[in-house]
Amino acid sequence: MNALVPLPVLLPVLAAGVKIVIGPRHPLLKRAISVAALAAVLGVAIALLVRADRDGPQAVQLGGWPAPVGITLVADRLSAVMLVVSSAVTLCVMVYAFGQDAAERDRDTPMSVFHPTYLLLAAGVCDAFLAGDLFNMFVGFEMMLMASYVLVTLGGTMARVRAGTTYIIVALLSSMLFLVAIAVLYAATGTVSMAQLSWRIAELPGPVARIAEVTLLTAFAVKAAVFPLSMWLPDSYPSAPTPVTAVFAGLLTKIGVYGVIRAETLLFPGGHLRRVLLVAALLSMLVGVLGAMVQIDVRRLLSFTLVSHIGYMIFGVGLDSAAGLAATVFYVLHHITIQTTLFLVAGLIDRRGGATSLARLGGLARTAPLVGVLFFVPAMNLGGIPPLSGFLGKLGLLRAGLAQGGPLADALVAGAVVTSLLTLYSLVKVWNQAFWSAPPEDMPEGARAGRLPIAMVAGSAALVVLSLAYTAAGGPLYALCERAATELLAPQTYVQAVFPSGGAT
């Protein structure tokens, strides 16, 4: 079973290579290859989750080189469940892209470039989740980012190049910080294996450990768009093609959150920067949601809500408790799906209404009732309406905050409630203006009549169903997240999987 661990990385890379060799010919074959590769990754991820939950972390040493010399991949409960959700999301977005491919030929999105690049992005995401050492995690980040540089500027339009330039500069700066943190830790400990670092960092002088922790967390915070390192996001995401924006919003920021979780549980346990994380979480919530309230473009509004809801995840990590971590893991899974869905539906709104500006939209409840349903369900979920999964995740965070106690935790609880209400207000504003209000007298030139592409609707609908499944299976899923949190706070099982003979010391 351990032989399955590298497959989520290898399968998309191989599929991308095959598609490049095929070239522009045989479009149906290329689509079948993409779906088969991503579906196989999803199947492997589910098998790894079952095995990791039943038998503990699954580790493999690539090339037969023992840790810490070789490349180690580890699938524990956290990385396995992240793999399952991310592979399901990437598969649905790929199906959506097929519909956009058929509907937007000869426009400014060369989908023949999109598909292999997207598969490389998926491989980078999987590698980042499975990496057992910091340098391999850096390689996964760079695979993902190199693909994202192509995707965010796809088509070469002026708006995309301008937004992509900001994104690329910020991403390069965060990668440089990440590399500096790796260099500091290697110089101080002589290893980049996360299992081995969990022992050796504890032996470092306090100032050295704090410098490494702050540098590493800053790099992850930029990638996760934690305030005040989030101002690049609302200008970078909305201009990209809809499938790119959706997967960026749903997945890429959560990889930064995943890095924060790993750093604060495996590498630097003890909550030394707990107050800093809690303050950053509160500011991310409030600044993000206040920015969302004043937006009139649907994509920019969703980008600001993305920033605000990253604050919920950092809130749970900052609590440094099993309850807080369990709620964070659950909320990350929920938010990957919901945020991706909303950006995909924003693409449907653009296609049917011809715009994403609320000033130019109206009457979609009558002209596109299915789009209304596909927007309403995830919007209420993001707003935290019971009994949906957004409510379950937020309730878990609020309970963990109240159990923690203290002025800062109480302020976070109050901020989380206010943020949820203002998020609901912002999304209801979109619903009222785009769907219920009368259409503008002069419809935008881009407005289209007729049926929406089936693949675009199917990809969006599949994610809506997946989000509802989180609610239907809320109890077992939350219990899995609690087991993952317990495992994170007791990293001995992770270390033992990588060093079964006790070589970590």
TrEMBL record:
Coiled coil: none annotated. Keywords: Cell membrane, Membrane, Transmembrane, Transmembrane helix. The keyword Cell membrane applies. Pfam families: Proton_antipo_M. InterPro entries: CPA3_Na-H_Antiporter_D, NADH_UbQ_OxRdtase, ND/Mrp_TM. Residues 131-412 form the NADH:quinone oxidoreductase/Mrp antiporter transmembrane domain. It is a multi-pass membrane protein. Its main location: membrane. The keyword Membrane applies. It is found in: Cell membrane; Membrane. Belongs to the CPA3 antiporters (TC 2.A.63) subunit D family. NCBIfam families: PRK12665.1. This is Na+/H+ antiporter subunit D. It comes from Actinomadura violacea.
